[in-house]
Amino acid sequence: MGWQMIVIACVGLSFAPAAIAQVGSQQSEAQLRARALERCTSNRGVDCDDPKALRQWVNEERPMTAAEQQRAVAARRARDRQGR
User: Fold this and answer.
1) DSSP 84
2) Which of 11, 16, 56, 71 shows its CA 20 to 30 Å from the CA of 1?
3) DSSP letter at 44?
4) What angle do CA 48, 45, 42 make, to 5 degrees?
5) What is the average pLDDT across 14-30?
């Protein structure tokens, strides 16, 4: 009986970080959405209730990944070279 309790505790603890990360992810998604809704209404306030229209604002609130940053730098450099 004692070893079964240890196994159950270990299995339960192994799932805890994943569950915590998922809850944190859901909270951050809700915060992103709330900030996006606030920016949408302050900037234009037309169809901010529509999820499709709000998607643009949510995407702007998300931080850029390293790959996206590299692509943005490359695009900026290409534009600068064309302008010279």
Assistant:
1) -
2) 16
3) T
4) 110
5) 57
